[in-house]
């Protein structure tokens, strides 16, 4: 992907991270215009990392890459302030277009994602008094702890915030 992005004149890759925690730290240090992030990152998943980056750097646009496509995931990504979503299977074709659109502060969702969003919008039912999912009621730190525990870390080895 790095090479794909570097083929565009005037674009530069200012960093690469292996974990979500590294991605947040690197973004805070380099203050990029656009972050391209995998949803499935260790230590801090891409969605939670995106939330933290958007909170600290509201002008930084984010495109999420994922193998998976689900209504719930797309909803959470949009709620996190992410304006770009590309399936990894479509990355060779769509990643450059996504970064280009985000550089103009436009949204970019691959055709499959756009279709799913439109179907979801057309078929949704009013929530009518629901308080949302349990996930909606967890804090950012609580979601981070749940992920670390799911990765097999013990509560004694969890990093402090």
Structure description:
By secondary structure, this protein is an alpha/beta fold. 48% of the residues lie in helices and 11% in strands. It is built from eight helices and four strands. The protein has helices spanning 2-6, 20-30, 46-56, 71-79, 91-103, 111-123, 134-137, 140-150; strands at 34-38, 61-66, 84-87, 108-109. It has a four-stranded parallel beta sheet. It is globular, with a radius of gyration of 16 Å. The protein starts with a helix and ends in an 11-residue tail after the last helix. Residues 126-130 have low confidence and may be disordered.
Mean model confidence by pLDDT: 81
- Strand count: 4
The class by helix and strand makeup works out as alpha/beta
Radius of gyration: 16 Å
* Low-pLDDT regions: 126-130
Largest sheet: 4 strands, parallel
Task: Give the strand order of the largest sheet, numbering strands 1, 2, ... along the chain.
Answer: 1-2-3-4
Percent of residues in beta strands? 5-15%
Distance between the termini: 31 Å
The ordered string of helix (H) and strand (E) elements is: HHEHEHEHEHHH
Give the proportion of residues in helices: 40-55%
Report the principal-axis shape: globular
The helix count comes to: 8
Which helices and strands occur, and which strands form pairs?
Layout lengths: L1 H5 L13 H11 L3 E5 L7 H11 L4 E6 L4 H9 L4 E4 L3 H13 L4 E2 L1 H13 L10 H4 L2 H11 L11
Parallel strand pairs: 1-2, 2-3, 3-4
């Amino acid at each position: 992907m790095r090479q794909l992005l570097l083929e565009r004149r005037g674009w530069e890759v200012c960093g690469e991270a292996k974990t979500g925690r590294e991605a947040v730290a690197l973004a805070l240090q380099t203050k990029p215009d656009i972050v391209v992030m995998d949803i499935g990152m260790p230590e801090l998943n891409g969605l939670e990392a995106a939330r933290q980056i958007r909170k600290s750097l509201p002008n930084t646009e984010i495109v999420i890459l994922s193998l998976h496509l689900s209504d719930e995931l797309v909803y959470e990504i949009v709620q996190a302030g992410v304006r770009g979503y590309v399936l990894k299977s479509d990355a060779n074709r769509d990643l450059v277009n996504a970064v280009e659109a985000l550089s103009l502060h436009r949204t970019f969702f691959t055709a499959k994602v756009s279709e799913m969003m439109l179907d979801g919008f057309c078929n949704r039912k009013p929530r009518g008094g629901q308080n949302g999912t349990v996930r909606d009621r967890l804090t950012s730190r609580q979601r981070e702890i749940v992920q670390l525990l799911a990765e097999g870390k013990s509560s004694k080895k969890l990093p402090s915030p």
